[in-house]
Structure formats: structure tokens, C-alpha cells
Specification:
Elements: H1 9-18, H2 27-38, E1 42-47, E2 56-60, E3 65-70, H3 75-91, E4 96-98, E5 117-120, H4 127-142, H5 156-159
Parallel strand pairs: 1-3
Antiparallel strand pairs: 2-3, 2-5, 4-5
Helix pairs in contact: 1-4, 3-4
Organism: Streptomyces vinaceus
Protein name: ImmA/IrrE family metallo-endopeptidase
Amino acid sequence: MTSGRLSTMRDCRRYVRSLRLDPYSSAHELCDQISSARGRPIRVVEARLPVPGPMGVWVCRTDDDVVIVQDLAVGAHRDHIVLHELAHILCEHEGERYRHDEPALSALGGLPEGGAVVRFRSVHDSAAEREAELLAAAFAEFAIDDRAEAKVSWDVQRYFGGA
């Protein structure tokens, strides 16, 4: 849907505004809204993922999307992982395809049935990773809390060396 178009924070903020979202205060609330808008459920589940390894995984199934989050992640870090995987979903990024019997997936306790394709990304400096990180940061900025302040405290644009 958006792949390759979101190269700056300005682009990401514009995209988030274009979604005309209701105020949300958590990654789960945002997933619910995006699910409703797309007419396709997004489930978030926790699992003990291998360390070192991915902190989040997107499983694209026939009837829904599943975001698997490292169960050791907590708080804002956990929310950011969910937002990052949600960004991959919205951008329709491709990942490395793994078979259902792939040993690296054993920590997931078995994959849900339903024609699942697991999307791991192992190249963290790729354009898709940068786009997902920027969009996740833009989603976090739009999240509201009691003080109605942005929740992003670091400059993601500078971190990735882009303008």
C-alpha cells in the first residue's frame, strides 16, 4: 500500500493524518482501528522469541495478520515493536519466507494454521526497515496520553541518518 513512499518523518506524519484515526492511547487500540478500517483482523500475541533474534514477527495468514511480540519486551518498547510490525503490514513489506517447520520458529510454540506466511526481516538497515521505523515513530507521536504529548523521545530521523 505505501511501500517506498514514506522516506521521511514528514511523509509518515502526512500518511498517519490521512488515515483519519480516532484518538488512541495504545498500540492495541491502534491495531483495532486499523483492523476495522481494513476489514482484516490484526491479532497481537506474546511469545518467547530466541535471543538474539527478532523482537517482533509478522505472520500473514489467509484471514488475518498476527503480530508476535517478544514476551520479554515491556512498556513503551513493547508498544514500539507492535507499531513497527503494524507499519510493515500497512506498507505491505515482503520478508524472508520460512517454512512452517523452520527450526527458528520452534520458540513460537507452533504457528497458527490458515496459510500463514511468516515475515522475518534480518537486514536492519534496509529501506523497508527504515520505513517501518519511521512510520512506527509517527504512530507513536499521534498516540495520546493524559498529557496529550508525543511519546517519541528520540530523533528517529537522525538515528537512521536521513533527512
